[in-house]
Amino acid sequence: MSRTPPTTLDKSRALRAEGTDAEKTLWRLLRGRRLDGWKFRRQHPAPPYVLDFACVEAQLAVEADGGQHNGAERDQLRAEFLTNTGWRVLRFWNTDILANPEGVAETIRAALSGKPSPHPPTAARWAPPSPAGGGRGDLEA
To answer: Would the N or C end of the chain have less CB density within 10 A of its end CB?
Structure first.
């Protein structure tokens, strides 16, 4: 079982504590809505890189600031690495995230479409115990 190197985890934690207004907006958008049951993680380690936002189940990375991290050559290597390991990458400029968060959300939804959500909302919910039901809680449809 491979483990994430400590330096990658440290970098991930440090980046999570920072963040631009666009990254915070994108995180609120992804986390608050769970985008139809898809769960995203912020500053997710994918050694040797750290992904801005990642949906592991869909192998989808969402990157802010156009996905530019370390210069054109290193960003090209990063993009090739992610593609070769099965990740799809969506890149958004910070100005687009701040100006049109709904459009960004729709683009992400489109990238997730075609696959069933691994965390669908449940139709059943817990009902409190009823005196007529013998004091047991039951699931309601």
So the answer is: N
- Residues spanned by the domain of 135: 6-140
Residue 88 inside a domain? The answer is yes
Q: Report d(CA 104, CA 118) in Å as an integer.
A: 21
Joined together, the tokens standing for residue 14 give 């440090």
Q: pLDDT tier at 12 (50, 70, 90 boundaries)?
A: very low
Q: How many structural domains compose the chain?
A: 1
Write the CA distances from 6 to 3, 45, 70, 85, 118, integer angstroms: 9, 10, 20, 21, 29
Kindly report, residue by residue over 74-130, the tens digit of the pLDDT.
888 888 898 899 999 999 999 999 999 999 999 998 998 876 666 555 444 444 455
Report the CATH number that the domain containing residue 85 is assigned in CATH.
Answer: 3.40.960.10
Beta strands in 15-134 (DSSP E): 41-46, 49-55, 60-63, 88-91, 125-126
